[in-house]
């Protein structure tokens, strides 16, 4: 715990429970052990996570790093007292940014701040982070739990993380590889992922919605649907890199599809996308209808059903979609790259 290791009556009276922190560490060990990789090196002191980089695998290895949190989605987890999936969201937000460059994720660290350490709750959160790391193929090599009485209410917490990966210098993906005629392949999202939840909570509050109510058009309880964890694409993206000619990826997070995809386009090329090639999941139309949110605002806030976009050489597009289908990821061609000014053009209407 960040607050220190000395247990004193005065410290306990101030609201810091060192014993609870130590129990939380014991409970999370079984989760962390699921994320091991052969490159891990034991640090007996526990102050740092150690990872041996096998430089023999690379001619010119470049490290990639990313850091993020999960935003106000944590408030829904707290409201529903459901803490086992929010860690998956954290890994998705961190690692799927990192893999956009073509980097293989190696390891991740996490940071949890809370008003009061409840060991079982902390272990649930870390269990989710560990599950996310398993899905991403990386190790969880360290973390920190900090108890902040007075700064946060006893049931409040927030979490953040950082990840590190490696990519061959000559294999870094990005706008410089994109060519006219490339195909933009969409990888379906599992829902809003971890973006737009301030708007979602505003809609829930303004419309007087009950998070525990069953919503027929969503096929389940509203809160459970909204807590659907972020899909993690790391292994799928790396599979594409190894099997087809992938030129760039775009992780569709805050700001929506257009603004994120534009980051992966060079100045002289546009991506022309057809809205009619897919139908966003019902949760998006539910949010729009309940909140009176315009299509423009929805598309500027949410991923609208596309969690990751891959820019693929035209001859490999069908093969990429088939490969993703074999991996259980719904994917489709939603557009193409043409001459322009580095913008995304959305044409057509959703079915």
TrEMBL record:
Top-tier EC class: ligase
SUPFAM superfamilies listed in its UniProt record: PurM C-terminal domain-like, PurM N-terminal domain-like
Pathway involvement of the protein, from the record: Purine metabolism; IMP biosynthesis via de novo pathway; 5-amino-1-(5-phospho-D-ribosyl)imidazole from N(2)-formyl-N(1)-(5-phospho-D-ribosyl)glycinamide: step 2/2
InterPro entries membership: PurM-like_C_dom (IPR010918), PurM-like_C_sf (IPR036676), PurM-like_N (IPR016188), PurM-like_N_sf (IPR036921), PurM_cligase (IPR004733)
Catalysed reactions, as listed in the record: 2-formamido-N(1)-(5-O-phospho-beta-D-ribosyl)acetamidine + ATP = 5-amino-1-(5-phospho-beta-D-ribosyl)imidazole + ADP + phosphate + H(+)
Positions of the PurM-like C-terminal domain: 179-342
Keywords: ATP-binding, Cytoplasm, Ligase, Nucleotide-binding, Purine biosynthesis
Gene Ontology MF annotations: ATP binding; phosphoribosylamine-glycine ligase activity; phosphoribosylformylglycinamidine cyclo-ligase activity
GO terms for biological process, alphabetical: 'de novo' IMP biosynthetic process; adenine biosynthetic process
NCBIfam families: purM
Descriptive protein name: Phosphoribosylformylglycinamidine cyclo-ligase
Source organism: Marinactinospora thermotolerans DSM 45154
Lineage: Bacteria, Bacillati, Actinomycetota, Actinomycetes, Streptosporangiales
């Amino acid at each position: 715990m960040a607050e220190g290791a000395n247990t004193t009556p005065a410290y306990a009276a101030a609201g810091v429970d060192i014993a609870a922190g130590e129990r939380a560490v014991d409970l999370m060990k079984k989760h962390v052990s699921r994320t091991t990789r052969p490159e891990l090196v034991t640090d007996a002191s526990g102050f740092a996570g150690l990872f041996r980089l096998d430089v023999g695998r690379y001619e010119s290895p470049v490290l990639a790093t990313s850091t993020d949190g999960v935003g106000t989605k944590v408030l829904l987890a707290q409201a529903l007292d459901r803490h086992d999936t929010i860690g998956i969201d954290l890994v998705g937000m961190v690692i799927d940014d990192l893999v956009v460059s073509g980097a293989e994720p190696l390891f991740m660290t996490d940071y949890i701040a809370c008003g009061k350490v409840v060991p079982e709750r902390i272990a649930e959160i870390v269990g989710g982070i560990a599950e996310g790391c398993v899905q991403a193929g990386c190790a969880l090599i360290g973390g920190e739990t900090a108890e902040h009485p007075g700064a946060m209410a006893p049931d409040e917490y927030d979490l953040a993380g950082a990840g590190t990966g490696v990519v061959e210098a000559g294999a870094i993906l990005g706008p410089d590889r994109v060519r006219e005629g490339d195909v933009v392949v969409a990888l379906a999202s599992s829902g809003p992922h971890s973006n737009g939840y301030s708007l979602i909570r505003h809609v829930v509050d303004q419309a007087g919605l009950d998070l525990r109510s069953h919503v027929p058009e969503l096929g389940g309880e509203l809160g459970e649907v909204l807590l659907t964890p972020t899909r993690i694409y790391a292994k799928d993206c790396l599979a594409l890199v190894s099997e087809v000619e992938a030129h760039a990826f775009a992780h569709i997070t805050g700001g929506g599809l257009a603004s994120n995809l534009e980051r992966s386009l060079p100045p002289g090329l546009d991506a022309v996308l057809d809205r009619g090639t897919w139908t966003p999941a019902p949760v998006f139309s539910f949010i729009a209808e309940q909140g009176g949110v315009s299509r423009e605002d929805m598309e500027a806030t949410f991923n609208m059903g596309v969690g990751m976009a891959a820019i693929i050489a035209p001859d490999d597009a069908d093969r990429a979609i088939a490969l993703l289908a074999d991996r259980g990821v719904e994917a489709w061609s939603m557009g193409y790259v043409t001459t322009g000014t580095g913008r995304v053009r959305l044409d057509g209407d959703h079915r």
